[in-house]
Design goal:
mainly alpha; 69% helix; transmembrane helix; membrane; Cyt_oxidase_maturation_cbb3; Cbb3-type cytochrome oxidase assembly protein CcoS; transmembrane
């Protein structure tokens, strides 16, 4: 039962870190042109 006192806060911190990383990626424009990257491999350079 004591392990829950460690695992619950640890999981909350992990979820907050994942949300922060996703927010950072969206804020920095990582998902602006998703289709462009898919089409880039089809084009001949």
């Amino acid at each position: 039962m004591e392990v829950l006192y460690v695992l619950i806060p640890l999981s909350v911190v992990l979820v907050l870190a994942i949300v922060a990383a996703l927010w950072w990626a969206v804020y920095r424009g990582q998902f602006e042109s998703v289709e462009q990257e898919g089409e880039r491999i089809l084009r001949d350079d």
